[in-house]
Amino acid sequence: MPLMTFEAAIADSATFAKRHLLLGNGFSIACCADIFHYGSLFAQADFSSCPEVKSVFTLLGTEDFEATIRALENAALILPAYVPDGAGAITKMQVHSIALKEILIQTIAGNHPAVPPEIDDTKFWACRAFLSHFLATGGQVFTLNYDLLLYWTLMHDDNPFRDPINLAKNDGFGNDEDDPDAEYVVWQGEVGAHDARVHFLHGALHLFDSGSELKKYTWVRKGVPLVEQAREAIDKNAYPLFVAEGTSAQKKAKIRHNAYLYQGFKQFTANARIGSHCFFIFGHSLAANDDHILTRMARGKFRKLYVGIYGDPASVDNQRIMNRANELAEQRQEKSPLDVQFYDAATAQVWG
Fold this sequence. Notes:
With 352 residues, the protein is of the alpha/beta class. The chain folds into 2 domains: 6-32 and 115-170 and 197-203 and 243-348, Rossmann fold (3-Layer(aba) Sandwich); 36-111, no CATH class. Helices cover 44% and strands 14% of the residues. The chain has helices spanning 6-12, 26-29, 33-36, 38-44, 52-60, 65-78, 87-111, 121-135, 149-155, 189-192, 219-222, 226-235, 248-256, 259-272, 291-298, 316-330, and strands spanning 18-23, 141-143, 173-174, 184-187, 198-200, 203-209, 214-217, 240-242, 277-282, 304-309, 339-344. A 6-stranded parallel β-sheet has the order 5-2-1-9-10-11, with helices on both faces. It has a 5-stranded antiparallel β-sheet with strand order 3-4-7-6-8. β9, α15 and β10 form a beta-alpha-beta unit. α15 (291-298) packs across α16 (316-330).
């Protein structure tokens, strides 16, 4: 069957009380494919600290960081069954899996656009129009991306030649009550963040866990570009809050051990349980390493899921995505059926 247009999907979803959005890496790739595609990150990554890891990518035939992290962690688990005296190799694999997560963070920070003006205004205006279907109508946006593009879009001025778009931007952060003039804002906790509408489910480049609190770096407070602030912190071995674990179970475990991440996860789950709501997915491959998120959709009660498909629907990758989406519907209980519709992601014109 032909794919729906995004416009038709939005019109079709008008019967629901709220529509929510789940963003995957395709959201960022659509804006800056030369930066945020895994292949681009792999080409820019510095593996000098653990050169063997580059060979692991080659042996696996992939440039996917998460898949390689997962392979290293799984190999460390099963190696004792085959090499009883392989303790040294096991330790090295475990060390390298941790190092690879840091390489990923450093590579994203090192190649990220430095400031919003590096991206054309028309792209931000188009993205704000896209997000308005969710954040201007009572819905919420959940992103699995680490970069700053969503945050920059929310902070960007509207097109001066059109009516302004009232996007809800609350992400649960506010002034530190002990230091209201600090150069950063802090997460307000579960109660204070209850009304948050934007959730970075896997962390982000501008979120740093200081131990006692979760800080969000801002440009307006410090006058220093966010990417520069992140690079400075990384140079001092302070890493942003990232969930780059290999498997879904490992990701879920890390989420459960961080109050901010767990609150976002609970918000996603809570909305998935409301029958009068619907969800859109854009730029996500529905891969198994995000099953901790996807199974919440399968176990939910919302009635309709709109999944963006980019390119030829008959391609191997798109057929896998469509089959996976239909599997989520098949897992539903009979009293809460899930209708899955596929739309042409290109027609959303997310970045113009």
